[in-house]
Amino acid sequence: MFTLDGRLAVCASLVRKGAKLADVGTDHAYLPVWLAKNDSITSAIASDIREKPLRSGADNIEKYGCSEIVAARLSDGLDAVLPEEADDIVMAGMGSELICNIIERAPWLKDSDKRLILQPMTKAHILRKYLLDNGFEIVSETPCAHGGKNYTVILARYSGIIMKAESSFYYMGRLDPADHLSRDYMKGVLSKIYKKRNGISVTGGDTSELDGVIAEIIKLYGDDINDSSQRYL
Questions:
Q1: Under the phi-then-psi rule, with left for phi > 0, alpha for psi from -120 to 50, and beta for the rest, what region is 39?
Q2: Where are the domains of the chain?
Q3: Mind listing the pLDDT tens digit for each residue in 122-136?
């Protein structure tokens, strides 16, 4: 039996025992197969928009004897998944804009009984803002590492309450800076903000918004998150 990589292991840990799972962008179907083999779920839809990886996923489902629990399904996001087929919905390994688009096209996710387990590869601040703007509560965040890079896994649920947050929250979320993986992630985020800010500065653009974000983050989390290599050009 295979082992899950760091990102998928965190996602698996957040799936509720006995849940019906939808794994969007399943690729090789490792997550639903692993959960099925560990008796953690009652059923799963392993969906992907691409036929080739879905065939690979279907092969793994059959190989590991999970066909009675896990079904491979060609689907653009959640378009081919019914609300009653999923309690916990995983979207891992894709960009924040795509995750937002998938959520937007599935209004049935606005149900407090559903849980969203989201692992954005890029621009997590966009996803956090979208969630809060659309009535989703960010319950927790868990750091993870994969391929020498740090990521976050967001656990969210619908509360119906639209929230506004400081810019620092959109960029850093609910991660705990006392945790070394979280802090490494946060340093990486701040580095990217610096790079964006400096790029704008070089072209003569207005950096005041990002200057404010940087100052807010450093004030909240301390200057030790601010590596010397990240400072202004």
A1: left
A2: 6-164, 180-230
A3: 999 999 999 999 999
Q: Is the dihedral of CA 33, 34, 37, 41 positive or negative?
A: negative
- Residue from 101, 89, 93, 100 nearest 32 by CA: 89
User: Tokens standing for 113?
Assistant: 């009984």
**What does the mean pLDDT of the chain come to?**
94
Output the six-digit token pair for 176. 């705990």
pTM greater than the 0.90 cutoff: yes
Helix/strand/coil for 70: strand
Residue whose tokens read 């008796």: 39
Amino acid making up residue 57: G
Can you name the residues that pair with 153 across neighbouring β-strands?
A: 142
The fold for domain 6-164 equals: Rossmann fold (3.40.50)
Which of 171, 114, 112, 184 is CA-nearest to residue 144?
Answer: 184
